[in-house]
Amino acid sequence: MKKAFLAGAAALLTATALTSVVTPALADDIKQGGSMIVTYKDDVSTLDPAIGYDWQNWSMIKSLFDGLMDYEPGTTNLMKDLAEDYTISDDGTVFTFKLREGVKFHNGREMTAEDVKYSLDRVTNPKTQSPGAGFFGSIKGFDEVAAGEAEGLSGVTVVDPYTVKIELSRPDATFLHVMAINFSSIVPKETVEEFGADFGKHPVGTGAFSLEDWTLGQHLIFKRNEDYWRAGVPKLDQITFEVGQEPIVALLRLQRGEADIPGDGIPPAKFLEVTQDDQYKDLIIEGGQLHTGYVTMNVKMPPFDKVEVRKAVNMAINKDRIIRIINGRAVAANQPLPPSMPGYDNNYEGYPFDPEAAKALLAEAGLPDGFETEIYVYNTDPNPRITQAIQADLAAIGIKAEIKALAQANVIAAGGEPDQAPMIWSGGMAWIADFPDPSNFYGPILGCSGAVKGGWNWSWYCNEELDAMATEADSITDPAKKAEREEMWRKIFISVMDDAAWAPVFHEQRYTMRSERLGGPDAIFVDPVHIPVNYDYVWAKDVQ
Amino acid sequence: MGSYIARRILQSLLILLGISFLTFVLLYLIPADPARQIAGRSATVQTVENIREQLGLNLPFYQQYFRYLTGLVQGDLGRSYLQKTEVGELIVSRLPATLLLMLGAIVSELIIGLSMGLLAALKRNTAVDNGLMVLSFVGVSSPQFVIGILLLYVFAVQLGWFPIGGYGTFMHMVLPSLTLGFLGAGWYSRMMRSSMIDVLRQDFIRTARAKGLKRWQVLFGHAMPNAMLPIIAMIGIDIGLFMSGIVVVESVFGWPGIGQLAWQAIQRVDIPIIMGVTLVSAFAIVLGNFVADLIAPLIDPRIKLR
Fold first, then answer.
1. A503 - beta bridge partners?
2. Comparing A180-189, A351-360, B128-137, which segment has the lowest mean pLDDT?
């Protein structure tokens, strides 16, 4: 039954991914106008695209700004945004973008290739303190800028006002994704310089909405950009973001018609009550996300240096029970990649839940009586409860794991030391992809480059053969060879599983709710990239 | 009097300096690395180092503290790590909401507390008195988040009389003010009761009655003003109680004041905001006590300031 449900959920997820493309004909029929209220618990931190990096401002920034590339609404499929066209050199190291003409910033000035160069120089400049600077490492001249030796990226050249050429120091198949990430948004130099460090409170971009008002601690108002270059977008005239509202209060207000979307999602405490109520059945939307929760086993710390032990842990964990602990808000994982990520292997079955076989593996590794170890965990709910379940599962095969529940920063610090944390439950910290490409699930968390002090490869798994294969895969930039590249990644992640560097546990699902008066394809309310909601395509039923 | 005030100001400054030092030490010791937090998970080691240097986090403790104090003297509370905004600006933008809530709380604690105390004193040793005193006991001892959620559930969610949290109109203000004032109301009703019972026993009350004044005239003209003296002196001290209460009450009701700001900052370990709110609250408490001490002799001439 449980299996059937999970299979169903997975099928549903794939189905939404396939059918969720907004057909232009349908989108054109929808009249513009109306408004909505979105609530959040926390203050919005910043709307500066070079700085903003959280769940709340991610999609807001996408509505205020544009980059050269974006994704089709509700999907992970790349599409051109401010780039009208692009060409990639045969060796995959030179990207030439032709810009759309006549695109205006909210301040009225036309956007040109100079702005693209300025924006990329700014985000990589150490003075900007951008958390996303590292994504641009493949651009020629990045190292000099990062070290403070150069003011601008030597690889980025303005060919003419509507053409910009970007040279890379190595072929990078993920580069178009990098050009779609918020950090690559195009900003106007004069406004950035006018407001300096406060640009994040006075954002000006070319996006579908512009910021009308921001009353600190209370609300933000986004107004439709009348001059937006994409015809018929956005649908709404205005969005009000109200902040400082606890998720439970937000849900009550939605039920009373005072708010339209609880930005923080459905709170766990109300989850069963709301999802089991027929009244709300059609208003609740479920979506996948590019997330995997896993247990790392430090291969540098015995006995986890033995592959049999790591396999035994994989077979000992009862994933279905853990998913029940979080009210079924996840699907079981058998490999590092989440199901909606290109390169996911649908045919791979993973390690079965089999405590007897796990015990046999321990015996094979010379540990028939098990051993004592520690499992680190971030101390906020539900992570300690999940870890308790893992602890019980491990105890059943003779592994006595002591739980170390600590603040997030401390767990991350312990994971970044080669000899401190034998096991870590990744929940609440890792890993959600920054962009929908398998390479983002490898380098920092499974590759040799992440297995360094202060890194995020908490298994300290470093397989040079796989690293070489990853580099090779990422140098395949020809779109025609996309399938070949995906196949390589598939192999890499299945090899990681053969070595059992992780015990993948589940992929979190996202649940949100919308009010009756909002329209739009379900997929945009749980957009995998415009997280949490693709505001540009939501429409109001009361103006149709 | 002049020298008293000068001495008190000096004392207050020393207290604030002490608080700033203690808070700074505590926040310095918590094992969170602000630079890493700002840099995010995708940052290179180089980026983290750059940020640490730019924020002066690589300096020894005493230098960091001195830098903070230098800014403080110039009215600069620093910049929030995560909100990327001047802490002073954040606090100032939220102060009106907090002051309004405190005013509401003072009004509600006085109205509820005084009328409960008065009624209990007049009906003393009856069932009414006992009932009211049990209620005041509940008020003094209940955690504010319980009272807040209870009021919210009954009067906003179930009965729909008030909005479910938020800010803007008088109706938004009622429930949070009652919640914040409930503790003080319980306290004041007890003080009012005993002080009223005391006053009613005094000779001048008997004289007032004897000269033919009506019962309500005696009560409100003679007894109340005397019984309220100790209570008015207490209001200044209430600021301290409120400062701890607003963190809870503002979070429950989504009230955009500095309590909510503090709570969000604590959850995200945004050190400059925690520091700023702590100092502003400490300043308010010190000021509240100071003012309460200054007005005490105006109300009761028997009190002398030395």
1. A295
2. B128-137
Tokens of B200: 């009613």
Q: Which residue has the higher pLDDT, A247 or A64?
A: A64
B138-142 LR contacts (CB < 8 Å, sep 24+) = B138/B186, B139/B182, B139/B183, B139/B185, B139/B186, B139/B187, B139/B189, B140/B183, B140/B186, B140/B187, B140/B190, B141/B186, B142/B182, B142/B183
N- to C-terminal Cα separation, chain B: 7
d(CA A507, CA A503): 12
Beta strands in A127-208 (DSSP E): 156-160, 163-167
Phi, psi of A504 (to 5 degrees): -65, 140
Q: Which residues of A touch B31 (CB under 8 A)?
A: 407, 409-410, 413
In A30-160, which ranges are continuous DSSP H helix?
Answer: 57-64, 113-124, 142-146
Chain A residue whose CA is closest to B257? A217
- Which are the contacts of A170, defined by CB distance < 8 A and separation ≥ 6? A93, A138, A475
Q: Are A235 and A536 in contact (CB under 8 A)?
A: yes
- pLDDT, tens only, B66-75: 999 999 989 8
Instruction: Give, in degrees to the nearest 5, the angle at Cα B117 between B113 and B119.
Output: 120
* Cα–Cα nearest to B197, from B274, B260, B133: B133
pLDDT one-digit tens code per residue, B250-303: 988 888 899 999 988 887 788 899 999 999 999 988 888 888 788 777 766 777
CA of B82 vs chain A CAs: smallest distance (Å)? 6
Nearest residue to A530 (alpha-carbon basis) of A212, A207, A309, A303: A207
Q: Enumerate domains of chain B plus CATH numbers.
A: 20-73 (no CATH), 88-299 (1.10.3720.10)
pLDDT digits (tens, 9 = 90+) for B174-231: 999 999 998 888 888 888 888 888 888 888 888 888 888 887 888 887 787 777 777 7
**Measured distance CA(A513)–CA(A275) in Å, rounded:** 10
**Has the ipTM of the complex gone over 0.90?**
no
Amino acid letter, residue B280? V
| pLDDT score of A152 | 93
State whether B83 and A148 contact (CB < 8 Å): no
Out of A130, A217, A413, whose CB is closest to B93? A217
Rounded to an integer, what distance in angstroms lies between the CA atom of residue A68 and that of residue B81?
29
Of the candidates B31, B36, B256, which has its C-beta nearest A407's C-beta?
Answer: B31
Residue A168 gets which letter from DSSP?
Answer: B
Please compute Rg for chain A using Cα positions: 24
Question: With an 8 Å Cβ cutoff, are A258 and B264 in contact?
Answer: no
Enter the pTM of the model. Answer: 0.84
B276 neighbourhood in chain A, CB within 8 Å: none
Q: What share of chain B is helix, strand, coil (3-state, %, to 5)?
A: 80, 0, 20
- A331-346, pLDDT tens digit by residue? 999 999 999 899 999 9
The owner of tokens 């060796």 is A91
> Which residue is listed with tokens 């939501």?
A538
Choose between A28 and B235: higher pLDDT.
B235
Nearest Cα residue to A49 out of A272, A211, A217, A218 = A211
Cβ partners under 8 Å of residue B115, min gap 6: none
A121: closest CA of chain B, how far (Å): 15
- By C-alpha distance, which of A147, A153, A180, A152 is closest to A169? A153
The verdict on A107 touching B (C-beta cutoff 8 Å) is no
Cβ contact B37–A430 (<8 Å):
no
Average pLDDT over every residue of A200-224: 95
What distance in Å separates residue A212's CA from the closest CA in chain B? 18
- Residue range A374-409, pLDDT digits in tens: 999 998 888 999 999 999 999 999 999 999 998 787
Q: pLDDT at position A25, please?
A: 42
